[in-house]
Design a protein that fits this description.
The chain has 510 residues and is α+β, with helices and mostly antiparallel strands.
Length: 510
């Protein structure tokens, strides 16, 4: 008997699940045996998982601070300090720190004088601004004479480290790479050292680098410009309304002193979780952590964010006219990851937007052929605070954002009015389990998951509980939440309206 393709896919998924469930249960039990969690006296949390399959280990440092912790006028500062964390310390990256420290202090004094003068609205004196700018840049030249460029990264690479990188989001800043197992003490020294004595060297040069990043990602990218305005329209009070990279004027204004103040407030041990996974001995890692990370001075965990985005009461629309590819996005406010319905949102997201089997892709791309891409995401631009559930589509030649809007809303209406089929729901739940199992195979990815779950929920086991939460979601919960969330007054729309609209080629698909 010939089995339809969708039936075959489901049969294969169910077969995979029958194998996955025992493995999943065993992994939870084996993880509890192989994981140790230690909170140091200064408040830093360490997670160690022994995994001796290969003579390497990976780590993930999670700092519970991102762009939402920035102040007005200092947007982009969390990302800026991430760059500074690779510039070295009072020992690494300098030929003479005692003299460099004096030179960097002169830079800050000169910059403060220049920056205040250039921002004066009344009594602005161009000649004075130019003289102060020259004095500041001369001070930078002097400070640069003590710099050993890229020494931190070169040490890591020379000693066998791979994947040296970091990232800043709205919610957090993270650092990671992998080392051979016999470099565990070197890792403990290097990773703790850069948070013990960071130096704001080459700060203003790096600030210019970040400004160019912004130019490339946003100013020179129509979709980047649209998304920035889309977020600004969606969030009128909460910091989710500004891009992680920061506003242009802030990128030209904040100082190394501002970055140091951000570090002193948020890079405290009680606000950090470090996960180590690989061919290590937990007791040895804990001992080294106490020796090296224990040097970080104890400080209270920063206060929670005060601002909460008020409910949206009217639809908002942003239209960018540009001679570029048309684009359509619409977003709806939803609660944070701590909400009891978070798993229901995860199921809706998978069902509607995840890959080629999603409803949006099948409808807009495969069947109607009006879109080159159709997908979405829940938890945008972060998920620690109330955020957005968004849908987007890229029209094919000859089709318009208005068509994307109609098609997307048709699919939204279906999920609001008709129960999800049992087959679809089973597929989503199976995929959640399989994705978890795949994520457990990689040391770096696992360290990421463990550290993030520990930081967010106070327990790394949330990595597994998430799948259990998804497994309990039913069709009624999906309809209830879709009807409560996907309503006009809760919606923000973003459109790139092409001023040079492409038309379908002769004989092409209309």
């Amino acid at each position: 008997m010939k089995i339809p393709l969708r039936g075959l896919a489901l049969a294969m998924a169910v077969a995979s699940l029958s194998l996955a469930l025992p493995a999943l249960a065993q992994d939870v039990a084996s993880f509890e045996k192989r994981i140790k969690v230690e909170t140091l006296d200064n408040g830093l949390t360490l997670i160690v998982m022994e995994r001796p399959e290969a003579p390497v280990f990976s780590f993930f440092t999670h700092v519970d601070a991102g762009s939402t912790q920035e102040l007005a006028g200092q947007t982009g500062l969390a990302h800026m300090f991430e760059h500074m964390a690779f510039k070295g310390t009072d020992i690494i990256g300098t030929t003479n720190y005692a003299e460099e420290k004096k030179a960097l202090a002169k830079v800050e004094v000169a910059y403060r004088a220049y920056d205040v003068e250039r921002r004066m609205l009344a009594r602005h004196d161009d000649a004075k601004v130019a003289a102060l700018e020259k004095a500041w840049k001369d001070a930078i030249v002097e400070a640069d004479t003590f710099v050993v460029k890229n020494e931190f990264g070169e040490i890591v690479e020379r000693e066998g480290g791979v994947g040296l990188n970091a990232g800043t989001s709205s919610d957090e800043t993270v650092y990671f790479y992998s080392f051979p197992e016999n470099r565990i003490e070197l890792w403990a020294y290097l990773e703790s050292e850069r948070f013990l004595e960071p130096v704001m060297r080459e700060f203003y040069k790096e600030r210019d680098v970040v400004f160019e990043e912004r130019r490339m990602r946003i100013e020179s990218n129509p979709i980047g410009r649209l998304i920035e305005q889309f977020l600004a329209a969606s969030f009128t009070a909460h910091p989710y309304g500004w891009a992680t990279i920061g506003w242009p004027s802030d990128l030209k204004s904040y100082s190394a002193s501002d970055a140091k103040a951000f570090f002193d407030t948020y890079y405290v041990p009680s606000n950090m979780v470090v996960a180590v996974v690989g061919d290590v001995k937990a007791d040895e890692v804990i001992g080294l952590a106490k020796t090296y990370f224990g040097r970080l001075p104890k400080s209270p965990k920063p206060e929670p964010l005060r601002t909460v985005e008020p409910p949206q009461t009217a639809e908002r629309t942003v239209v960018l006219k540009d001679p570029a590819q048309p684009f359509y996005i619409e977003g709806y406010h939803r609660p944070s990851t701590y909400d009891p319905d978070d798993a229901v949102f995860a199921v809706i997201s998978d069902l509607m937007t995840a890959g080629r089997t999603s409803r949006l892709y099948r409808s807009l791309v495969r069947d109607k052929k009006i879109a080159a891409a159709a997908a979405g995401f829940s938890g945008f631009p972060g998920d620690k605070y109330p955020n957005l559930f968004a849908f987007y589509a890229v029209p094919t030649p000859g089709h318009t954002p208005a068509e994307m809007q109609t098609a997307i809303r048709g699919e939204i209406e279906m999920i609001k009015t008709a129960d999800v089929t049992a087959d679809e729901l089973k597929m989503v739940k199976t995929r959640a389990k399989v994705n978890l199992l795949r994520g457990l195979a990689d040391n770096q990815g696992l360290a990421n998951q463990l550290a993030t779950a520990q930081s967010r929920f106070g327990d790394w086991r949330q990595v597994f509980r998430r799948v259990d939460d998804i497994d309990r979601v039913d069709a009624a919960a999906i309809r209830r939440l879709a009807n409560a969330t996907f309503v006009e007054s809760n919606r923000t729309v973003g459109i790139v309206e092409s001023t040079k609209m492409a038309t379908a080629p002769s004989g092409g698909q209309e």
